[in-house]
Amino acid sequence: MTSLSQLTRRAFLGAALAAVASLPALAAEPMKLSPEQLVAVNSISDYLNSFKTLQGEFTQISPKGNSSQGVFYISKPGKMRFEYAPPNPFLIVSDGTWLTIKNVQKEKGDQFPLSQTPLRLVLGNKVDIANDTNIVDFQNQDGTVSVTVEDKKSTLGSGQLTLVYDQAHKQLQQWIVTDGKGRKTTVSLENVQTGIEPDPQLFVVKIKRDSKNGP
Prior knowledge:
Blueprint: H1 4-15, H2 35-49, E1 53-61, E2 67-75, E3 79-84, E4 90-95, E5 98-103, E6 108-113, H3 120-123, H4 129-132, E7 133-141, E8 144-151, E9 160-166, E10 171-178, E11 184-194, E12 208-209
Parallel strand pairs: 6-12
Antiparallel strand pairs: 1-2, 1-11, 2-3, 3-4, 4-5, 5-6, 7-8, 8-9, 9-10, 10-11
């Protein structure tokens, strides 16, 4: 039987942009970017820096091919909510300090310091992919740029994150998380809107913790 802890970690893989503490880092060799590649990478950072609030819908494909849908909200700095549609029972919320992964059916979950997760790469006021990550792969096909990175500073044994960016429409389309065991979780973004101020209560969550993580 799969435990709550295992399930919450799998949810974290999909929406939190990182592998979890128990998974070893892939530790690929960083690549040296050409000037043209660096411009493309910086365009992704520029996009992430172009908004303070973001919301929309997402579709997540698990390593086993299972599909989940939901809605998400981002409010910088540091706040995020990924709300899965039933039957997926999970809710992922960052309040700016703690990342909470909650099973809403059981009112239980886990918490992690936001500063120790790679979410800081996209929820901060200033995103600089070229300097804050090790870039291990770069692809550009017909204006769709795919950049695979590893976090330089995370203390929670990182996997790899691939950001898929549409240069023509200047929009992040997708990210793919590869954990330390090579398992991939894909999150596609749809109907994305910027400039809409979310209700602050969306980033407030309470749990009965199963672990000792959290305040």
